[in-house]
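Anyone else keep sequences and structure tokens together like this?

Example one:
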Amino acid sequence: SAFSSVAHICRDINYGWMIRNIHANGASVFFICLYMHIGRGIYYGSFMFKETWNIGIILLLLVMATAFVGYV
């Protein structure tokens, strides 16, 4: 099962616990960067370029869907 695989990596693999934590924190930092990028776009008025903004929103939704599927 998935839980036993994660437990094996964290307990039995050298620095497995660190790899797991780096992976989890890296994913969180990635989303923080995404939200900061969107905030910058709102601040500078980049949403006025509709095509670019819509592509960015579609990419955001795809990344969120990928993260959800990877979490579930």
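And example two:
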Amino acid sequence: MLELGVEETVDRRAMKLYDTLLIAELIISVLLIIVVAMQPTKTNNAASAFTGGAEQLFGKQKARGFEAVLQRATVVLGILFFALALALAYIAIH
């Protein structure tokens, strides 16, 4: 049996970690797309954001029920996506 050197063992561990984080990043990105697509629209159309619908878009209305869950999921998945992207970039350059 061929024994691996310390550097080769570290490289293999780093590659396994990189592969695992990359798979997690892909899963989170798909989930993020799904969660964002499931969120209800706030206004009737895009033009209403510039006309009379701006107060609805930027108002202080708090989401309730399923809409609140989707908003929280979007924030959590977005933070995880960003953190994993930073971790993947760090591993790639080292």
